[in-house]
Amino acid sequence: MFVERLRGGVNLAGVANTIAAIYETTLESGQTIQPHYHPDAEEVYYLLSGNGLMHIGNEQKAVEMGDVVYIPPEKVHFLQNTSSEPLRFITLTVRVYKVEAMPYIL
After folding, report:
1. How many structural domains compose the chain?
2. Residue 30's pLDDT band (boundaries 50, 70, 90)?
3. pLDDT tens-digit profile of 39-78?
4. Cα(50)–Cα(81) distance, integer angstroms
5. Residues 86 and 51: beta-carbon distance below 8 Å
6. Is 67 among the domain residues?
7. Using CA atoms, how far apart are residues 99 and 101, in angstroms rounded to an integer?
8. Would residue 11 count as lying in a domain?
9. Which of 28, 41, 33, 22 is nearest to 79 (CA)?
10. How many whole angstroms separate alpha carbon 54 and alpha carbon 57?
11. Which of 31, 45, 52, 91 could form a disulfide with 23 if both were Cys (CB 3.0 to 4.6 A apart)?
């Protein structure tokens, strides 16, 4: 059985097959996560408090407490805290594996 207290983040690479990590992050007012992407992972953000502006690729959308954001692999993304309050969220990172095309045999 694996039980660990979430203190910033937990790396699950040695425990789970596809779940890479889970993190709790706080962005103070005006802070922004640097634009980045994951070639081999998709992510889900769950906002615990505050609000901000989510950027994925060429799209942006206002987000707030209770929102769930899906981020596909290979998409540049970042989150800005646009409020005067801290923005807290949980990130779940899941590894994705590219399936090679199998030849079609009759």
Report:
1. 1
2. very high
3. 999 999 999 999 999 999 999 999 999 999 999 999 999 9
4. 8
5. no
6. yes
7. 6
8. no
9. 33
10. 10
11. 91
Question: What whole-number percentage of the chain has pLDDT above 90?
Answer: 70
Tokens for 28, please give them: 């103070």
Across the chain, what does the average pLDDT equal? 89
Radius of gyration of the chain measured on its C-alpha atoms: 16
Residue closest to 98 by CA, chosen among 11, 38, 28: 38
Q: Is residue 8 part of a domain?
A: no
DSSP codes, 64-80: ETT-EEEE-TT--EEEE
The amino acid sitting at 100 is E
pTM of the full predicted structure? 0.83
Q: Phi and psi for 97 in degrees, rounded to 5?
A: -120, 130
